[in-house]
């Protein structure tokens, strides 16, 4: 049975906001993070995800509550006494040191014997695929290569947990996607628990075993990527994870929802057809956006005037295309929507 690596128990963090008064960054957060999993804290800026990461690292202490590492409290322990390492957004490499020297630095600080440290450095260089670049300085590396050095340095001391604070945000789109796969590979190969902070939904869905969606200092939902995307429990989660159409009031009731409930439907689940269609909701296409693999249609519904989004794949045999001004019938297949409690 998989054990628990990090156990956050009813943690609250309040900062002194000066003249603005106290600021509650975390409000009674509890979460268990398992051994050997890639766990992501996902949410918008200011939701508390980085504060929680910093408390696990030891850079901040809880106002109340406790944090345990493999069942042992780590409250009050300084960062260097905790068997965790952090990879920051800025990488924080030493510019005057080579790749090899940067990776060896933490081992030297811990007094690791030279031959053992050299062997570990060589192992890390191979793990992050930087062979042949051992003697280069950070200024001679690309952004992705610098990030690999930062990862290798953090992994070299064999931490029980690796904390990653938005380490991909400074990379361009193509490199960011490549590094998403690399990070997951590294986590799988090392077997170390990774706790990853991001505001990027695609990053979270691509890499994570489980995701905690946060808002205003609280965790709203925890689950695997498919569960979070397909079965959101809160309106905020459905809205934050990808695009979502919300059907409220009379529309929701007409689509089979109980009074007061909201139906959330992803754009790719909506079907469009030319009128007269076999039931559904009448609407008019307002804009059409071609994005290569898909075409996105924004449709204004005749009843209530809501603007909804439908996304159709561009493939042979796909649904017919429409132009702005075309009348359409919007259909939602049975089981395509998910009812939200709030």
Automatic annotation (TrEMBL):
Keywords: ATP-binding, Cell membrane, Membrane, Nucleotide-binding, Translocase, Transport. SUPFAM superfamilies: MOP-like, P-loop containing nucleoside triphosphate hydrolases. Residues 6-241 form the ABC transporter domain. CDD domains: ABC_PotA_N (cd03300). SMART domains: AAA. InterPro entries: AAA+_ATPase, ABC_SmlMolc_Importer, ABC_transporter-like_ATP-bd, ABC_transporter-like_CS, Mo/tungstate-bd_C_term_dom, P-loop_NTPase, PotA_ATP-bd, Transp-assoc_OB_typ2. PROSITE patterns: ABC_TRANSPORTER_1 (PS00211), ABC_TRANSPORTER_2 (PS50893). One of its GO terms (molecular function) is ATP binding. PANTHER family: SPERMIDINE/PUTRESCINE IMPORT ATP-BINDING PROTEIN POTA, SPERMIDINE_PUTRESCINE IMPORT ATP-BINDING PROTEIN POTA. This is Spermidine/putrescine transport system ATP-binding protein.
């Amino acid at each position: 049975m998989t054990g628990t690596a990090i156990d956050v128990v009813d943690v609250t963090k309040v900062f002194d906001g000066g003249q603005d008064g106290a600021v509650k960054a975390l409000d009674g957060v509890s979460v268990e993070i398992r051994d050997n999993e890639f766990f992501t804290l996902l949410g918008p800026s200011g939701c508390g995800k980085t504060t929680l990461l910093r408390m696990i690292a030891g850079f901040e202490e809880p106002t109340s509550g406790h944090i345990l590492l493999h069942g042992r409290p780590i409250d009050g322990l300084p960062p260097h006494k905790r068997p965790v390492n952090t990879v920051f957004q800025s990488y924080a490499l030493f510019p005057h040191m080579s790749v090899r020297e940067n990776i060896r630095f933490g081992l030297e600080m811990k007094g690791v014997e030279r031959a053992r440290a050299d062997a570990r450095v060589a192992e890390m260089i191979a793990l992050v695929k930087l062979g042949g670049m051992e003697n280069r300085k950070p200024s001679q590396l690309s952004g992705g290569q610098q990030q690999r050095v930062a990862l290798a340095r953090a992994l070299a001391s064999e931490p029980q947990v690796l904390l990653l604070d938005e380490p991909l945000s400074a990379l361009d789109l193509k490199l960011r996607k490549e590094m998403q796969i690399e990070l997951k590979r590294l986590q799988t190969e090392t077997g170390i628990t990774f706790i990853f902070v991001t505001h990027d939904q695609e990053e979270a869905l691509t890499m994570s075993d489980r995701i905690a969606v946060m808002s205003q200092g609280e965790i709203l939902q925890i689950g695997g990527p498919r569960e979070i995307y397909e079965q959101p429990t809160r309106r905020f989660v459905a809205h934050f994870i990808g695009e979502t159409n919300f059907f409220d009031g009379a529309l929701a009731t007409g689509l089979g929802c109980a009074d007061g409930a909201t139906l959330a439907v992803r754009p790719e689940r909506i079907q469009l057809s030319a009128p007269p269609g076999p039931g559904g909701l009448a609407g008019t296409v307002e804009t059409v956006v071609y994005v290569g693999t898909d075409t996105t249609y924004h449709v204004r519904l005749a009843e209530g005037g809501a603007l909804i989004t439908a996304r159709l794949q561009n493939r042979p045999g796909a649904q017919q295309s429409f132009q702005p001004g075309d009348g359409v019938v919007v259909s939602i297949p049975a089981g395509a929507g998910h009812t939200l409690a709030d």
